[in-house]
Amino acid sequence: MQSSLQIKNCQLYRQNELLLSLNEQVNGGEILTIMGPSGSGKSSLLNWLTGTLPSSFKANGEVWLNGQNIDNTPPHLRHIGVLYQDALLFSHLTVAGNIAFAMPKGNKKQRLEKIAHALEQVGLKDMGNRHPDNLSGGQQARVALLRMLLSEPKAILLDEPFSKLDTQLRVDTRELVFSQIRQHKLPAIMVTHDHSDYDAANGKLFTLNTVL
Amino acid sequence: MSVISKSAPVNTKATTQCSTDMFTRIVKFSPRFLLALLILPVLGGLISVLLPAFGYAPVLEQTTFSLQGFNALWQTPGLTQMVTLSVATGLISTLLAFIITLMILAAFFNSPWLNRIQRLLSPILVIPHAAAAIAVGFLIAPSGMISRLASPWLSGWELAPNGMFPHDSFGISIILGLTLKELPFLLLMALGVLAQPELGKKLRQQHKVALNLGYCPMTAFFKVILPSLYPLLRLPLLAVLAYASASVEMPLILGPNTPPTLAVAIMHWFNDVDLNLRIKASAGALLQLAVTGGLLALWLGAEKAVKVLFSDSLTNGVREYGGFYWQKITVVLTALVISFIMLSLIGLVMWSVAGFWRFPDAMPEQFTLLHFKSALMQMGSPLFNTLAIGLVTTLFAIILTLLCLESEQLSDKPISRFTSLIIYLPLLVPSIAFLFGLVWIQQLINNQAAFFNVVLTHLLFVLPYVFLSLASSYRRLDPRFAHVAASLGAAPCKVFFKVKLPQLFAPILIAAALGLAISFGQYLPTLLAGGGRIATITTEAVTLANGASRRTSAVYAIMQMALPLIGFILAWVLPKYFFKSARA
Lengths: 212, 584
Known about the structure:
The complex is a heterodimer.
Chain A: E1 4-14, E2 17-27, E3 31-35, H1 42-50, E4 57-65, E5 68-69, E6 80-83, H2 95-102, H3 108-121, H4 137-149, E7 155-159, H5 167-183, E8 188-192, H6 195-201, E9 205-207
Parallel strand pairs in A: 3-8, 3-9, 6-7, 7-8
Antiparallel strand pairs in A: 1-2, 1-4, 4-5
Helix pairs in contact in A: 2-4, 4-5
Chain B: H1 22-53, H2 68-74, H3 79-108, H4 112-121, H5 129-140, H6 145-149, H7 172-194, H8 197-212, H9 217-246, H10 249-254, H11 262-270, H12 277-314, H13 323-352, H14 370-378, H15 380-410, H16 417-423, H17 425-428, H18 431-444, H19 450-476, H20 479-487, H21 492-503, H22 505-521, H23 524-529, H24 537-545, H25 550-583
């Protein structure tokens, strides 16, 4: 079965003010881009999808992931991976520890091998024992990506994930993230300010206005 | 001359330009004064307890070194029990308070319940230990609220039974009292860390990342938040442990008498009419120092062991350890803690206004203000002493703290790690150990100024809290205000008084209320430094707790709670009032 993330008749309110309404289906390997000015409710939409909408917001509508309604699933059981603009690596763990934290439990040796392999694939060979705070911004972004991918998510949300990287790094990292999304055939939703992100995503665009 | 000519570093900060004026000199000198003020009494006290412990006590005309004090100490019947009681009550209560704190944080992290629990528990902070002990004693006594609520329908008791609480020989009452008192402290310290803008935001985001990765909320707290949170909780934890292992008020009111905890026994020896017992008491104070030091070392060691043992499980990918059940257990435990505290406070208030109150009744038959009236009649001089000592101590502590924090900003570098550690010194060294040394010194130099002595010793305990409370707001002041003022020609002195202090009005009032609350609650320092001649509400309350009528005792405990509460309410209301009038 093809994986999909479906948003049915979502209406998002901030204190009774309608911010956005959305009705979309994203299939595996597709990237839906959402653009709009600050305060238009982009990040809140992602929070709603992960089940962490602050109580000052209200939302109607349903989320379906791979044919299952997950409206009442607690955040930690939704299997939706998120990449933020900050890498948010855990500073009390090593690079490998950050990734191991995300992986399903299992045989320790296999887990370590998988981590080493994954690091090598993104050009971070033998960096597993490094401390995340000592990595460059681009390296941190790649570790955050690996951490999310190895948690085996069923869908991916990107919250302006490249906005803190400089231009060349931005292109490379974006290429890496998008290729992984397509390779794993995961549905993805990306929130961004940057048109070049949308061009690279090569998918649908949904534009928000402040005034509806 | 080197080839590359380095220009001398130009200090562009306008505030440092006129560094010779009086104000700047006083400010720059203040950290050294603070250090001396904290180190000299503590170290001096420790040394002067060391000498008598080894038999050297000119006051008692003993000038030869001997081990007679220690010999007497070892021969004390029940010494092992005393030490065991001190160690057990200190360690278990700290551990319980810590574990429940973590469970509450883990179960309610990022939930509105955490704020509600915080609001319910934070008033407990201002309750002095003695008052808390009295309230808990009333709750668990054979004729206390718990037994009344359970009688006769559940227990079948028509008359008050011969219960073992309080004063049980296992120290369970002490553990209960200390745990209930320290739990809100630790919880609020942790919430204070999480309220730091940058760190708090980072930790909340990391918690969210862990949830997105499929971690159950409680597991996410323990695997992601705790490793970053714990280092910031270490000092408060050690302070709690040091206090719990050597405190006097709680075991005096809730603990057994035969034998009591080590700290209480030492106090009795010191206050004995037989002055030679003071040699033994000094030896005991050293033993107390070793016991507390040992406990602190044990805690730090256990911390390392836990870190090593659990480092693998941090990354083993297990997301759920029965979080559902732990969540339920925590809810029950939290409700239990809160209802315990509420019940003891309700019981305290009822006793203070109770007329005739038959045993199994949950409510008194008559209410009367007689106890308040008669207690207030006798309260004049203790009340005056309490307020005078508190105000003088707090005023001094606030001024010194502000000067030290200003020196930090004038010299543009934070206070050294050494200094910030020393500020905690009076909280980590068992007060019973160095206070006795101070008393020896006072007698040696024949210092009779009891009021001054009490203020000085109170300052040792008030300063750390005032400093901690003010430091964060002072350091968070936007430096651009000072820069703008300086660029307009204001001298450092003017910047301090006209720009910084008005901005800090509210935090200063809060720090003052905290300082007053700490001073009001001091028992041992007041008793020892005042030579028993200065009575405060707290010393009276402790004396009354073990003897006089429950009703009088309740009135004193309520007064003990009311004073700091009034302080905090003023600190909360005054800024609103002033800002309102400024706007109008």
